[in-house]
Amino acid sequence: MEKTWRWFGPNDKITLDMLRQIGVEGIVTALHHIPNGEVWSLEEVEKMRDLIEAHGMRWSVVESLPVSESIKYAGADRDELIERYKESLANLGKAGVKTVCYNFMPVLDWARTDLDYPNPNGTTNLYFNLGEFAYFDIHILKREGAEADYDAATLERVAKIRETMTPEGEKRLVDNIIVKTQGFVNGNISEADLDPVQKFRDLLKLYDGIDADKLRENMAYFLNAIMPVCREYDINMCVHPDDPPRPILGLPRIVTCDADIKAFLDAVPDKHNGLTFCAGSLSAGAQNDVVELARKYAKRTHFAHIRICKTLPGGDFKESSHLDPRLIEVVRIFQKENPDVPMRVDHAELMLDDGEKGYNAGYSFHGRMLALGQIEGVMAACK
Ligand code: DNO
Q1: Which of 42, 67, 246, 343 lies at a CB distance of 3.0 to 4.6 Å from 304, suitable for a disulfide?
Q2: Distance in Å, CA 292 to ligand 1 centroid
Q3: Tens digit of pLDDT for each residue in 179-216?
Q4: Catalytic residue among 135, 230, 240, 257
């Protein structure tokens, strides 16, 4: 697999020079300064490509060219937005950047409740606590009918959490769930928003009446519309699985399991319609056997996210070690079935001085560097 690294552009505290030193071959990035829904001009694309190449690496993957909400819920301007998306794709193609990761998650990209969950050895990890998540849904967002989406055991946890919850604790949950994990991935909410919860409620309303079938239809509509450009420039689209892989906050999610993956691949049967095999997101669902999925979909994968989660009782999950035997097996499968696929490590621990640097959540330097070294070793052993 090609060793890549997600880099957030010239403002990233981790520089291209640093990445070159630690053996990174390809860069995964986006034009983060261009707002969602606007065209990425050829000039801007070439500027980014040239900057990366001047540092001895290549722009391997775009993560992400964001799909506007209106394309997901089929708003009045979706065709106009799809046209702009096609223009951006064509410009990427002309510049030779040919792997494009995106997601089709309504409103919220990935979700975690804790960005700093302590490990026994002094490092910290990302963590998803279903009780806290349900608390956010029921008592902060106050979503109508939210209680009905949780089982009795989770509601009991919510009641317990409520006994000791403070205004600071609520602010932390809002920050973790809808602010700190979203802005830097060009999501809907950023640190500049004064009332993120109200903004979030307004966004949820856009999906009134959109169920999983409708969302699937909208995804197929989008893919069918862009496939001619993908074929012309040989661009591989790769959808990121939903993280966590289950419906949340009353929103449908349609890339959560084997059947979902099969469904979107079958809906638009073109080799340019593929998957970002995020072993981490898929393994966060107790329904998924991530090794089996790797075996099944390695050849339809255009990009791999190498990390893995451990599911815990009560619907919680936490990021696990990059040397988890399941992940080693996933790497072995890719080394055999799709050896040139770009891969990046993801969501590594915060360790050493990472915590003081203000890195984006899940994107530490030392933690990811250690993980990359570990995976590099696994790759060498699996050749
Ligand atoms: C989180 C990331 C996601 C991913 C997008 C792709 O760490 O894996 O934000 O980039 O879902 O569109």
Answers
A1: 343
A2: 22
A3: 999 999 989 999 999 999 999 999 999 999 999 999 99
A4: 240
What is the structure's pLDDT at 52? 98
Residue 16 has pLDDT above 90, yes or no: yes
Q: Does 346 participate in catalysis according to the annotation?
A: yes
Specify whether 135 is catalytic: no
CA of 339 relative to ligand 1 center, distance in Å: 22
Q: Is 240 in the pocket of ligand 1 (CB under 6 A)?
A: yes
Known active-site residue 139: no
> How do residues 285-303 score in pLDDT, each as one tens digit?
999 999 999 999 999 999 9
Q: What is the mean pLDDT of residues 106-127?
A: 96
**Average pLDDT, integer, range 272-278:** 98
297 catalytic? Reply is: no
> What's the pLDDT at 230?
98
What order do you get walking across the sheet with 114-118 strand by strand? 114-118, 124-128, 317-319, 309-311
State what percent of residues in the chain have pLDDT above 70.
Answer: 100
* Percent residues over pLDDT 90 in the chain: 99
Centre of ligand 1 from the C-alpha of residue 109, in Å: 7
Tell me which residue has tokens 């009560």.
Answer: 314
Q: What number is the average pLDDT over the span 45-60?
A: 98
366 catalytic, yes or no? no
What's the CA-to-centroid distance between 184 and ligand 1, angstroms?
Answer: 10
